[in-house]
Amino acid sequence: MNSILYQQIQQFYDASSGLWEQIWGEHMHHGYYGRAGTYKIDRRQAQIDIIEELLDWGKVQSAKNIIDIGCGIGGATLYLSQKFNAMATGITLSPIQAARARERARELNLEDKAHFEVADALNIPFKDNNFDLVWSLESGEHMPDKTKFVQECYRVLKPGGTLILATWCHRPTNSLAGELTVDEKKHLEDIYRVYCLPYTISLPEYEAIALSCGFKNLRSDDWSMAVAPFWDVVIDSAFDPKAVVGLLQSGWTTIQAALSLGLMSRGYQRGLIRFGLLTGTK
Known about the structure:
By secondary structure, the protein is α/β, with parallel strands linked by helices. The chain has one domain (2-171, 201-281): Vaccinia Virus protein VP39 (Rossmann fold), CATH 3.40.50. 49% of the residues lie in helices and 19% in strands. It contains 12 helices and 7 strands. It has helices spanning 2-24, 43-57, 75-84, 95-107, 146-156, 182-195, 203-213, 224-227, 229-237, 241-250, 252-259, 261-269; strands at residues 65-69, 87-92, 114-118, 131-137, 157-170, 216-222, 273-281. A 7-stranded mixed β-sheet has the order 3-2-1-4-5-7-6, sandwiched between helices. It is globular. The relative contact order is 0.16.
């Protein structure tokens, strides 16, 4: 089952990453628009801001050896390597993403510090206690086994090291709102189908998993309101003529994802989709 999902994810990002970089830049993740949610920030700056905000929130001031799980074309990996003058390794399921990330590392003269591999995050090909920062920005939602994913994050983290995990979640079900409704489940299924996701869980569920794995000093937060404007900005830019031509050249899966951007925007509006944060130490 995982192999079919992984193939879908690989094909999705193989097909869409070039267009994404051309239209939206090297950072394949949400931007940070502040607690009030404002459109005044430049979108690319907002995508850099979220990296800085996450580091600040996670109290990470230095790092020597970093792993970026679900690295895309290396946007955050290379940024973190430069910022901390650190060794950084990015892993992705997409050979095209890994190749482009290596190319970008060469362009930035970072090929000695930043390395990229095609690898499965549920079987990270590195030894125990290896990295002092485990970074995962919007890849958890793709994982077919959330517990194994968090276990692997813990395994490769050095004692004293920090995990920073930011991922798509659905709303908590342990509150007055109760279990997910039939309509909410349908909305999530549509998102899963378009973006090659097996399922999502709530942030409290991630916390429980991280506790069971042994993480200490756990903290979590919900930045949904701070990132939600990103989808409306991307929707607006999708009407750029260059984007339209690129979409037509990228194939049906990429076109379908573009046509479905509103699913995420509406998911945030109704409180169903949440941008969940988790940090902890080993």
